Amino acid sequence: MHIRSLKIFCDVVDRRSFSRAADDNDISQSNVSHMVQALEERLGVQLLDRSKRPFELTEEGRRYYDGCRQLVRQYEELEEAVKTLHDAEARRLVVASIYSVGLHHMSAFMQRFGKEHPRAAVRLEYLHPHRVIEEVENEDADLGIVSYPKETDTLTAIPWRSEPMVVVCHPGHRLARETVLELKAVAGESFVAFENGLAPRTAIDRALAQNHAEVNVTLEFDNIETIKRAIEIDAGISILPEPSVRREIAMGSLAKIAIGGDGLFRPLGIVHRRDRPLSELARQFVGLLKADAEFSADLVPASAFQLDEAPA
Q1: Distance of alpha carbon 205 from the chain centroid
Q2: What is the pLDDT confidence band of residue 201, given thresholds at 50, 70 and 90?
Q3: Do the beta carbons of residue 47 and residue 60 sit within 8 Å?
Q4: How far apart are CA 155 and CA 312, in angstroms?
Q5: Which of 260, 257, 251, 215 is nearest to 236 (CA)?
Q6: Model pTM?
Q7: What is the pLDDT of residues 83-110, one digit of tens each?
């Protein structure tokens, strides 16, 4: 049995998608499906429950995934150790990131970093906020890029940047003609919110309450992309990071309104294990990311790193 097959199985589980795992490994989706089926046939058990959308791991699948993840990590560490005996530049770095950090900018940044470190194996994974934290805590990722980062006994946080939040609505909405408004102006509006338990939801709810702006939450989602799609069909308004809606604003499918007064900001940061010193490659990655002109922004104030909510 090839380590590659085990890695692809882990990628399917991590990405919750056969197609994304296929893209990550530069193979077809059908090949990924065949590999997983071959593993199931070899073991004589079902690893994935495909009757559910998205699929879920069976009890056997969870046990197999946990073991495969350890094997793949150990093999990658072995390869890295052997390579570095010959070339100190041939190193491995895994970065886990929330989707809303900016796919276009991060893609450009990764290309630039790759050119500066051509012999380094650097991989960027996009995951759900809670999965980003789990990957770093489990040492499956060296760095995690999250919003509303929180320092814990296990993790330490490095400030990166803060993003202004804006009111987002359908272009035909009555608020679309405004350029700036106070949060109290959204009182009574239908609102598309983040799911409870996510830090953006807590921060936004707190700001609305402080401004006596009670809204009617009609829909809840765990990611910005789905929230934007709901606003595009005029299901309600929302409050989102300004950089995350720039493409839709330019296309005319969404409208944004700046928040007056002190405004509202989303802090972004980089987390890593407190007991695991950053490698030289990781330090260079963090340094270049903070200095990169594409991501120029004010540093996140230290107070933003003390929220007691789940990161997102």
Answers
A1: 21
A2: very high
A3: yes
A4: 15
A5: 215
A6: 0.64
A7: 666 554 457 899 999 988 876 678 788 8
